[in-house]
Design goal:
3-stranded antiparallel sheet; 12% helix
Length: 151
């Protein structure tokens, strides 16, 4: 009985250990985003070998059915950060030296400025003004008579 139990435990642990040594079929997590391993698109391909962050050895995996990926995708535009020269230059046409020149442009100038307005002359105050200035008591353009109950 002990031999049968030990044999079952051995078979159970051996199959789990052997499962990591087989091959894997790589399926991308998002559609349209490739899984790239060492410059090869391994999407929907068979990968054989121990590979991953949890492994202590750095054996290169074998990829069956992958396709090479361009290191820099062709985007159709010039990006200076890619380090490549643009695919074409400017299409300049140099005119001949003895061509008819256009009329010169008319002169154009504009200027702005700011200044204070001229103020009318102020009368000078008297040399010796009175000590008290009396306001008119009866009448005037802004004077109202007090109400009747205050008299």
């Amino acid at each position: 009985m002990r031999f049968a139990t030990a044999l079952l435990i051995f078979i159970g642990t051996a199959s789990a250990a052997a499962a990591s040594e087989g091959f894997e079929i790589v399926i991308p997590q998002r559609p349209g985003v490739p899984v790239v391993i060492n410059g090869i698109d391994a999407s929907y391909a068979v990968v054989e070998g121990q590979y991953g962050l949890g492994r202590g050895n750095y054996m290169q995996p074998t990829i069956y059915g992958g396709r090479p990926v361009e290191p820099e995708p062709y985007v159709g535009h010039y990006y200076p950060t890619l380090g490549a020269k643009p695919g074409y230059g400017r299409m300049e046409i140099e005119p001949p030296a003895d061509r008819k020149l256009p009329k010169p442009a008319e002169s154009y100038s504009r200027s702005w400025g700011a200044q204070s307005q001229m103020q009318p002359a102020q009368p000078e105050p008297p040399m010796y003004p009175p000590a008290v200035i009396l306001a008119p008591r009866d009448g005037g353009p802004f004077y109202d008579s007090p109400p009747a109950y205050r008299r």
